[in-house]
Write a structure and sequence with these properties.
This is NfeD-like C-terminal, partner-binding. Keywords: Membrane, Transmembrane, Transmembrane helix. The protein is built from three helices and no strands. It is an all-alpha fold and about 90 residues long. It has a domain of about 55 residues.
Length: about 90
């Protein structure tokens, strides 16, 4: 059985990526986790749908890119602002 086509394997992968994002914050794994969750929901809704592995991974990577761009726009600093620090933690 190909586990790459099962909805729960993509759901477990999404959960793992979101847990990694909690442990190592920085919005790096969040886009990948959301994309894996979308793929998981797609397989849950249409269980007979089984594209080739290359198309599946291409769709996952495109979803991850789109999600990352959206998250970057949502969580970015307003244009023209720079993150500055007034004091050092060691002071």
């Amino acid at each position: 059985m190909d586990y790459i086509y099962l909805w729960w394997s993509w759901g477990a992968f999404a959960l793992l990526l979101l847990i990694i994002e909690i442990l190592a914050p920085g919005f790096v794994f969040l886009g990948f986790g959301i994309s894996a969750a979308v793929i998981s929901l797609g397989f849950l809704i249409a269980p007979g749908f089984a594209p080739s592995i290359s198309l599946l991974l291409l769709g996952f990577s495109l979803l991850a890119l789109i999600t990352w761009l959206i998250l970057r726009r949502v969580f970015a600093l307003p244009s023209g602002q720079v993150k500055t620090f007034d004091h050092d933690i060691n002071d």
